[in-house]
Write a structure and sequence with these properties.
The protein has 363 residues and is α/β, with parallel strands linked by helices. It folds into two domains: 248 residues, Alpha-Beta Barrel (TIM Barrel), CATH 3.20.20.70; 52 residues, no CATH class. Helices cover 39% and strands 24% of the residues. The strands form four sheets. It has a nine-stranded mixed sheet with strand order 9-10-8-7-6-5-4-1-11, with helices on both faces. A hairpin with a 2-residue loop joins strand 12 and strand 13. Helix 2 runs parallel beside helix 3. It starts with a strand and ends with a helix.
């Protein structure tokens, strides 16, 4: 059995205007108590015979943790599980937290993949998003990471921003893909309830549905022209640099989440941790809520596989393949899906309508 481990680090220096992920302000004392709680939970779940081949520090801003704190977490994973020598170990980072010294420290802990929250290469767009870094600071973070020995770097890109036009998207893609990065995660901005962006002033400045679709398709075209091939709805990579950890989610493979608001699909159940750092710190073992007693049945498996460009293999779902194939002709005719007779996958146009297309095929 192999396992991926997700560590949710909830600390942020500043809450971004669009973000609804669980986060709290960083304090030294609380960060130390949080790390102690993470270590307790690693020991609780630890199984020496279980191979861990991916570790992902997500947030929040995991790069706010110190070298010593990150090192202690990875050492505990290695002690309580069997951590593969070539495990993919990813850390999400805000560019402003990545100094040359910090990057060298991160690399020495065993972190070998960075996910840098770039979001845009245009300063005015970064200000609208409430980001604290400039485009130049983002470029410096990438170049310093390369100098520190990182060879697997991902950057985030957000599209369909307030007042965004095709020309500004093209500029960001051109600048981002010119950097020595291997992976890009690109997301259409959504106004989440309760965020600072959940207001009429922002909503009226957002591209409409047709304009957002045009921006998305243009982004896919530009990224693939530059060697970043789409392998999932929102993810693009140079060959061999697909996120191994995130692919666990879409392939219904086991992953264990530790930290407030972390989710897991582990030992035949899906569960979520309470969104409460005080509760997480105070509890001997994190408090969880079972969200699915028997995950990864046909409908969920098919839905997740169809998020991937490699698609759904008919022989993996023999009891349902005939019904799926019967539904394909209109989707293929409209350019939403393709098939080679052995599997079905969605096109970029199909990914735009993925919820509707998948519901039609699967449910």
């Amino acid at each position: 059995m192999s396992l991926g481990i997700y560590i949710h680090v909830p600390f942020c220096g500043k809450k971004c205007a669009y973000c609804d992920f669980y986060s709290v302000s960083w304090t030294k004392v609380q960060a130390e108590d949080y790390v102690d709680a993470v270590l307790r939970n690693i020991r609780h779940y630890g199984e020496s015979g279980t191979n861990v081949d991916t570790v992902y520090f997500g947030g929040g801003t995991p790069s706010l943790l110190s070298y010593k704190q990150l090192d202690s977490i990875l050492n505990e994973i290695g002690r309580c599980f069997s951590l593969d020598a070539d495990a993919e170990i990813t850390l999400e980072a805000n560019p402003c937290t990545l100094t040359p010294d910090k990057l060298r420290e991160l690399r020495s802990t065993g972190v070998n993949r960075l996910s840098i929250g770039m979001q845009s290469m245009i300063d005015d767009e970064l200000k609208i998003l409430g980001r604290v870094h400039s485009a130049d600071r983002g470029v410096k973070a990438v170049m310093d990471a390369v100098g520190a020995g990182f060879e697997n770097i991902s950057c985030d890109l957000m599209i369909a921003l307030p007042d965004q036009k095709k020309e500004s998207l093209q500029y960001s893609v051109e600048k981002l893909t010119a950097l020595p990065v291997q992976h890009i995660s690109a997301y259409i901005l959504k106004t989440e309830n309760g965020t600072a962006f959940d207001c009429e002033e922002i909503k009226r400045r957002l591209p409409d549905e047709d304009e957002s679709a045009e921006l998305y398709l243009e982004m896919v075209r530009l990224l693939e022209e530059r060697g970043f091939m789409q392998y999932e709805v929102s993810n693009f990579a140079k060959k061999g640099f697909e996120s191994r950890h995130n692919c666990r989610y879409w392939k219904c493979l086991d992953y264990l989440g530790i930290g407030p608001a972390a989710h897991s699909c582990y030992k035949g159940k899906r569960f979520a941790v309470e969104r409460d750092i005080a509760d997480f710190i105070a509890s001997e073992v994190q408090n969880i809520t079972i969200t699915d007693e028997s995950p990864c049945g046909f409908e969920e498996y098919a839905m997740l596989r169809l998020r991937l460009k490699e698609g759904l293999v008919f022989s993996d779902v023999p009891e349902h393949s005939a019904e799926i194939e019967k539904k394909l002709p209109p989707l293929i005719k409209e350019g939403y899906a393709e098939t080679d007779g052995k599997r079905v996958w969605l096109t970029a146009k199909g990914f735009l309508m993925s919820n509707s297309v998948i519901e039609y095929l699967v449910f």
